[in-house]
């Protein structure tokens, strides 16, 4: 197809601002999906995505658009009278005087040729910003969706800057103008103030009713640039995603920048130096549709009998084996896992079948999620398990739920931790740096020269009346204030630098609670910074439990250790014997608690008589409890491992 008739763009936004619903309306307006086939969140395939109402994996779709088409409103709304957005303007005016058409009004520029639209619906949660950056690399433009009632949020700003960094053309879209509380004029000015896009460039739509969709399609054609012209005759295609299919192997999503691909071509992955034979080429329309070839500017998928997802690297360049390109395309930074925790089977029989079941479930899940890593570990208290790496807490939560649903295994999850960089002294006093994901892996304290923790830049969008509470929360978490931006009359954006370990567990929940749900945040890792960090070990019944150890700031170590033991004393059930709990730094015990054993009055039936009889009974009980204590095991429930994260606030 002629390059001038191709548009590649992503849909980006904060969580719940309507990306997936807008994608549904675009599919209907271009007749890619009929009214009968249409359903909410059409591009979200996973059950978890539908249940939680979020997008986890980016979805790439190709549709053909005829400019003379009329936008199709959802079946549920066609019979209803459309509401006009509440505003001081007349009902047919959008932001800054832009016309607001009905859901079925034709485009004005009917002379435009039919076009191919390749668009990608991306996730909105901060944990999946890596998916967004990958999608943007395959595009020339982006639709920045903003809720017309809530306005610019933290992730809106971050996604806008991601698109600007890729030098993409951005169309700001005001969604949900059908809501009673919509403020399209104010939000358009907010976008101009915070992001610098002119208010009159905003396009007001309602993804729910279909209002404004024709104008949006027209803007996509007229305002987004076509793909760049090929710079070489040799084939170069960028891999921007990959999934695994049980029957066909790895399905590779590609964007072709130069040259052509067709079934039967022998291709080479320029980074991994692997060669494969293409057996199928196609596009998602949104159904899988085979094509005879793919040319410059087009996106699609290829299948080449690739059996393992590890044989494909996202960001790699595909070229032809017989006529390879001289240099690859600019790829991506590999996904960096920031949160780590251990998964153990909840129950283990003597044959270890539960461990094998967990291993198979994790291996199968890793085939469809390249940003999830795992390695086998062993714990004295919990047996064999896996140390897993995630992009964030939501990513961890989703992986655990998928293991239980799809793998059919119950897991015990330890407290999530972050990665640390540690300078250690080796032979001949040479200093080397290692990365530690688990406090149990820390080398001996005498070898440690310096420990560095990840520092995150946190941007918080909040109503002005909550600023004092938020500042106290951030400073209590060892945060450093950076700056403050006035977004509108009653909203501001605060920027802090906070250690990642202080925000991964309950920071967001506390932020939502103290702002009545109106506060939003985004974070990214800035650097690793040295500080006075120590490892706190926990001994239960004089035995160290590695899964309960933690790394924290030295000034707060004694307080954290005491709080942890108090929490453990409540969580661990009483046994027949007394259980001592100790928090230790190095060889020094900094806190102790005791779980009393069950008591039985063995002398209850002794009435009078010689006292030596009572002493014999008590002595026998004492010896029995001592023997039981030496051979007995302490049962540690799941809640005890999460107690490590309790900051005592």
Describe the structure.
The chain is an alpha+beta fold and 649 residues long. The chain has five domains: 3-223, Rossmann fold (3-Layer(aba) Sandwich); 236-320, Translation factors (Elongation Factor Tu (Ef-tu), domain 3, Beta Barrel); 339-413, Elongation Factor G (Translational Gtpase), domain 3 (Alpha-Beta Plaits, 2-Layer Sandwich), CATH 3.30.70; 420-531, Alpha-Beta Plaits, CATH 3.30.70; 534-645, Elongation factor 4, C-terminal domain (Alpha-Beta Plaits, 2-Layer Sandwich). 24% of the residues lie in helices and 30% in strands. The strands form five sheets. An eight-stranded antiparallel beta sheet has the order 10-9-14-7-8-13-11-12. A six-stranded mixed beta sheet has the order 2-3-1-4-5-6, sandwiched between helices. Strands 20, 21, 22, 23, 24 and 25 form a six-stranded antiparallel beta sheet that branches. The longest helix has 21 residues, at 611-631. It is globular, with a radius of gyration of 29 Å.
């Amino acid at each position: 197809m002629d390059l001038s008739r191709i548009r590649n763009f992503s849909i980006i936004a904060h969580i719940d601002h309507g990306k997936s619903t807008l994608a549904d309306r675009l599919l209907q307006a271009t007749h890619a999906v009929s009214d009968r086939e249409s359903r909410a969140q059409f591009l979200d395939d996973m059950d978890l995505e539908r249940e939680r109402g979020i997008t986890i994996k980016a979805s790439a779709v190709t549709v053909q658009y005829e400019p003379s088409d009329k936008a199709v409103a959802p079946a549920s709304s066609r019979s209803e009278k459309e509401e006009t957005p509440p505003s001081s303007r007349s009902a047919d005016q959008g932001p800054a005087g832009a016309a607001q058409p009905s859901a079925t009004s034709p485009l004005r520029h009917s002379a435009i040729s039919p076009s191919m639209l390749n668009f990608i619906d991306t996730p909105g949660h901060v944990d999946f910003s890596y998916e967004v950056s990958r999608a943007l690399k395959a595009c020339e433009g982006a639709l920045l969706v903003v809720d017309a009632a809530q306005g610019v949020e933290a992730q809106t700003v971050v996604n806008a800057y991601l698109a600007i960094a890729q030098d993409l053309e951005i169309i700001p879209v005001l969604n949900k103008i059908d809501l009673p509380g919509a403020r399209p004029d104010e939000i358009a000015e907010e976008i101009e103030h915070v992001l610098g896009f002119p208010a009159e460039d905003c396009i007001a739509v309602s993804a729910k009713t279909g209002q404004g969709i024709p104008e949006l399609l027209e803007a996509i054609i007229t305002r987004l640039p076509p793909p760049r012209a090929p710079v070489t005759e040799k084939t170069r295609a960028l891999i921007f995603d990959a999934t695994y299919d049980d029957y066909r192997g790895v399905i590779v999503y590609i964007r072709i920048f130069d040259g052509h691909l067709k079934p039967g071509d022998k291709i080479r992955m320029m980074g991994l130096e692997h060669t494969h034979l293409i057996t199928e080429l196609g596009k998602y329309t949104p159904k899988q549709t085979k094509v005879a070839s793919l040319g410059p500017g087009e996106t699609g998928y290829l299948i080449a009998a690739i059996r393992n997802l590890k044989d494909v690297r996202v960001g790699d360049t595909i070229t032809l084996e017989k006529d390879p390109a001289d240099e690859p395309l600019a790829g991506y930074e590999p996904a960096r896992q920031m949160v780590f925790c251990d998964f153990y089977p909840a129950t283990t029989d003597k044959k270890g079948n539960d461990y094998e079941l967990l291993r198979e479930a994790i291996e199968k899940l890793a085939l469809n999620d390249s940003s999830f890593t795992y390695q086998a570990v062993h714990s004295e208290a919990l047996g064999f398990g896996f140390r897993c790496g995630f992009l964030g807490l939501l990513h961890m939560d989703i992986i655990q739920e998928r293991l239980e649903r799809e793998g059919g295994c119950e897991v015990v999850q330890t407290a999530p931790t972050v990665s640390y960089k540690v300078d250690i002294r080796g032979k001949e006093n040479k200093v080397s740096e290692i990365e530690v994901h688990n406090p149990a892996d820390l080398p001996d304290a005498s070898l440690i020269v310096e420990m560095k923790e990840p520092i995150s830049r946190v941007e918080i969008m909040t109503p002005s009346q909550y600023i004092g509470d938020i500042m106290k929360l951030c400073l209590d978490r060892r945060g450093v204030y950076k700056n403050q931006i006035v977004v509108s009359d009653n909203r501001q954006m605060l920027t802090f630098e906070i250690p990642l370990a202080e925000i991964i567990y309950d920071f967001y929940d506390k932020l939502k609670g103290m702002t009545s749900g109106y506060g939003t945040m985004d974070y990214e890792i800035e650097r690793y910074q040295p500080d006075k960090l120590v490892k706190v070990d926990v001994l239960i019944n004089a035995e160290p439990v590695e899964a309960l150890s933690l790394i924290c700031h030295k000034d707060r170590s004694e307080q954290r250790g005491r709080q942890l033991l108090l929490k453990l004393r409540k969580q661990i059930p009483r046994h027949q014997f007394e259980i001592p709990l100790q928090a230790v730094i190095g060889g020094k015990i900094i806190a102790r608690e005791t779980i009393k054993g069950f008591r039985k009055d063995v002398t209850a039936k002794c009435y009078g008589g010689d006292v030596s009889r009572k002493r014999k009974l008590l002595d026998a009980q004492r010896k029995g409890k001592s023997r039981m204590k030496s051979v007995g095991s302490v049962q540690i429930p799941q809640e005890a491992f999460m107690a490590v994260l309790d900051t005592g606030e």
